[in-house]
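Technical annex, item 7. During the second reporting period the consortium partners agreed on a shared format for inverse folding records so that results from different sites could be compared directly. Each record opens with the tokenized structure and is followed by the designed sequence. A conforming record, contributed by the partner at site C, is shown below for reference.
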């Protein structure tokens, strides 16, 4: 376990005291230090501890630790720049999920869903979808009553279904997410804006661009009110509005929104983030059909190194990056 997660689980901000205690534990051979600043309890000792003091007898302590664990992973789940740190601790996420199944079913479901995020970031949509479906099945099986958790499960499944091209299923999931969120007594406004935005995208994928425009404009207004003009959530709304304006034939507005979305996503998320790659894809698509082919080629060549080999749009970037400026220019009509 890395020092960052360990610090949050212990609940201390005093690194000196924590490192001193870790040093004492190493000397007593209670734990061992691994590569880098990582620590692990000896397996035999862990088994003895679980046998002598089972989690069922420490439910309150266990729930507090799960809360801190979830907070650590939630802070990092959408941040592509922290993906490696997230992945480095994934085994602990799995182990806490396993140990929590009997005494904390709601938390177990949440921990299972969290495991889907690295796979989604890496473009492994099918594997990510399987984990989310397992989490939803567990939620129903355990008869959990947590509207916020359920709405986010439906939303995430809707996003994955969209990524996989199943837009009708995505529509069902996203509708459920929005309805559940709106029915909550203290519904999360940021979630409401996100769900509106995502549902609007699916309306567009199904060909209803006017309804898509209405929902996405409302989501943009909510996000700007909540976060200001420059924020990843605002960029998401701008990106989605850009694609809708493109579908409606308003390419000027499409380019305006997509350029602003790309600017924000590059600044906040970096070029390697799936959302940034998606916005770049959308912008290249519009540029290619509106006379901006030189900028489209430049963007494709710039972003090609950031697009994972298994990404569904990898061939699109390769194609545009190979396009020559001369061959892309329209030929004059023959008389």
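Designed sequence (site C submission):
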């Amino acid at each position: 376990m890395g020092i960052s997660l360990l610090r949050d689980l212990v609940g201390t901000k005093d690194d000196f005291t924590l490192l001193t205690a870790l040093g004492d534990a190493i000397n007593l051979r209670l734990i061992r230090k691994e590569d880098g600043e990582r620590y692990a309890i000896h397996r035999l000792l862990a088994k003895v501890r679980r046998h002598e003091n089972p989690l069922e007898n420490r439910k309150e302590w266990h729930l507090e630790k799960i809360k801190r664990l979830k907070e650590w992973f939630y802070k990092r789940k959408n941040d592509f720049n922290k993906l490696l740190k997230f992945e480095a601790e994934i085994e602990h996420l799995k182990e806490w999920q396993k140990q929590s199944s009997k005494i904390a079913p709601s938390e177990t479901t949440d921990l299972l869903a969290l495991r889907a995020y690295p796979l989604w970031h890496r473009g492994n949509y099918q594997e990510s979808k399987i984990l989310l479906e397992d989490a939803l099945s567990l939620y129903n099986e355990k008869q959990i009553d947590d509207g916020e958790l359920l709405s986010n499960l439906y939303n995430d499944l809707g996003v994955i279904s969209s990524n996989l091209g199943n837009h009708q299923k995505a529509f069902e999931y996203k509708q459920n997410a929005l309805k559940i969120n709106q029915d909550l007594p203290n519904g999360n406004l940021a979630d409401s804006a996100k769900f509106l935005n995502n549902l609007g995208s699916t309306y567009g994928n199904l060909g209803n661009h006017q309804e898509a425009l209405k929902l996405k404009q409302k989501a943009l207004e909510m996000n700007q009110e909540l976060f200001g003009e420059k924020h990843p959530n605002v960029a998401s709304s701008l990106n989605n509005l850009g694609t809708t304006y493109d579908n409606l034939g308003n390419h000027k507005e499409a380019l305006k929104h997509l350029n602003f979305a790309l600017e924000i996503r590059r600044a906040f998320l970096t070029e390697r983030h799936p959302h940034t790659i998606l916005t770049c894809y959308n912008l290249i698509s519009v540029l290619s059909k509106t006379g901006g082919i030189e900028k489209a080629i430049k963007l494709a060549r710039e972003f090609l190194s950031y697009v994972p080999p298994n990404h569904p749009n990898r061939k699109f970037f390769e194609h545009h990056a190979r396009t020559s400026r001369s061959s892309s220019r329209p030929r004059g009509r023959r008389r």
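Strands lie at 31-33, 39-41. The chain has 19 helices and two strands. All partners now use this format for quarterly exchanges.
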